[in-house]
Amino acid sequence: MVDTSSNSPGSDAPHDVITIHDLKKSYLLGEIEVPILHGIDLNVKKGEFVAIMGPSGSGKSTLMNMIGCLDRPTSGSVRLMGKDTATISDNELAELRGFEIGFVFQNFNLIPRLSAYENVLLPTYSNSKKDIDAMQRAKDLLTLVGLDDRLYHKPTELSGGQRQRVAIARSLINAPSLILADEPTGNLDSKTSEDIMGIFSELHGKGSTIVMITHDPEMKKYVDRVVLIKDGRIENN
Ligand code: ADP
Ligand code: MG
Fold this sequence. Notes:
The protein is built from 7 helices and 10 strands. By secondary structure, it is α/β, with parallel strands linked by helices.
């Protein structure tokens, strides 16, 4: 029988994409250790759309960077797709980051001199799933986000919303198991934000697992669950 019930934080369930246990993170400021995350427990199941909310400076991006293996925890564990990110090899870690996680950022992070199409294709230059026809997939993804008529436009020739659409298409090029988005609508007006959330919703509907940081309470309606972070602790787990 397929277990679709929720499970307690920290335990390892077969359908968990993310399992975080007692995660702590401190930064060194000179000689002083400044604790930022104080023991986070969080599980995200396959197919879930989770919003992380909380005041500015509460540690949301810090947490996201640990989940995305962009930074290492001070202590505690982060398991992705059942793999302990602290003990896997550098190669496996690079594969995890390159193939299994799609990143979307507030500032889009597109390469200015490349076209929309080339930006989407970029993650496949160094890293590509062998069974993917990258060029066709890049076009298909740009069609999916409504930019099939903008393939050869550069980022400066696109609106903010269009740039974020390109970034979403890029995040999907390697067919990741998990999409991580840090305030993806933070720089967009409310109408454009709704459009972008429509795309995330559609991806969620097709089974994608998405973790999104947002400031905007309006976004709650799109997600399965809101995780509230305050002063480096989860308030509502
Ligand atoms: P949020 O995304 O919730 O606004 P962040 O995770 O970016 O918050 O930051 C949480 C706290 O950690 C802030 O006080 C910030 O100044 C501090 N911080 C973030 N990154 C670093 C770093 N690389 N070095 C030192 N302090 C940092
Ligand atoms: Mg942040």
